[in-house]
Amino acid sequence: MFRRLLLLSAALLASCAAPEDSETKPLGENVLTKEQIKSARSGPVDFVTHVKPVFEAKCVMCHNRRALPGHMSLETRAAALRSGALGAYIVPGHPEKSLLVSNVNSAHSSQSAMPAVGERLTKDEYQIITKWVKEGAPWPSGYEGVLDVGR
Predict the structure, then answer these.
(1) d(CA 113, CA 93)
(2) Contacts of 103 (CB under 8 A, 6+ apart)
(3) Strand, helix or coil at 26?
(4) Do 74 and 55 touch, CB atoms closer than 8 A?
(5) How far apart, in whole angstroms, are the C-alpha atoms of residue 17 and residue 68?
(6) How many CB atoms are located within 10 Å of the residue 17 CB?
(7) pLDDT digit string (tens) for 7-53?
């Protein structure tokens, strides 16, 4: 009896780890145009042009001051730079220390893989976000720096 239960549990766990069975799609479509991707690769990453569209399309619908999964809001720079129980979400200049970067690049079956629901960032989007953090995560103040959460 114990052996059957163990085998059943193992089979259920294996099926949960399959990307096609997850609520999160393995990869989404690029939010950015080819021109935006090219300009981000060849020059500095601009928050308004390159980062904000990705955050608004794939992140801020959950990570805002109202929803706060993981106690992380990306709605404003001040909120995004806060540290939580697990560490700093964005560490300007250090993508390797930033939970934002590690969570969007987590193995698909990981509990911390982001987004939890919806399309994952594409390879291009991930590389641009990582480069932006490495460049110091410049984020303008004022209206340009506030993300639209679809209110």
Answers:
(1) 22
(2) 112, 113, 114
(3) coil
(4) yes
(5) 25
(6) 13
(7) 444 444 443 443 333 444 556 789 999 999 999 999 999 999 999 99
Interval 48-65: pLDDT, tens: 999 999 999 888 888 777
Tell if the pTM clears 0.70, that is, is over it.
yes
Residue by residue, what is the 3-state secondary structure of 44-100?
CCCHHHHHHHHHHHHCCCCCCCCCCHHHCCCCCHHHHCCEECCEECCCCCCHHHCHH
> In the numeric block, which tokens belong to residue 90?
């964005």
Q: What amino acid occupies position 127?
A: Q
Instruction: Determine how many CB atoms are found less than 10 A away from the CB of residue 128.
Output: 25
